[in-house]
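Render this sequence as a predicted structure.
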Amino acid sequence: MDQRIGTSSQPLKGEPVKGAGFDPAFIPGLTTPVADDAENAERVEETDDVEDFQDFQDVEDVEDADPADGAEDGETAEADADEAPVDGPVFEAADRRARIVADHRGVQLFLDDQECEFRWDEIGAVETETGRFGKRFTVTVHTPGQRWYPIEIEATSRSLFPEWEKRLDAVLDAYFED
């Protein structure tokens, strides 16, 4: 009796073989499409040349350009919202490595040179936890996609924990919708 190793299903005839099951280096959206014939290959090359030419700008144009001209309406509105001060509660806690900021924009987590930002509509829950004996205050941001992002802030004293809890609760009450 013969035994085959692997799957017995074969790709459909005429369709290019795609996916990580066939090519471990396959990343959707980052690789160029496979051209079946010479006509498609020429068309792909032509579009690449046109895109490269359209992306080219003179240095003088970049220096003279107004920064607000190139931004779309959504980008300028978002930039204005980031810069506009809001008279609402803000929570900020930091130690030598980590920092958390919760304000009108959402929750930002910083650890060393890494940064993670969540808007309020991306957050499913925010959880706090304190160690029984240590001085570590843990804040965990849960997303609706069942992922969580914890960060630990080392306090100078355990007496800061109730104050931090109260300030974080005020921010969550003001901006976070259940």
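Summary. The chain has a mean pLDDT of 74. The first strand starts at residue 91 and ends at 94.
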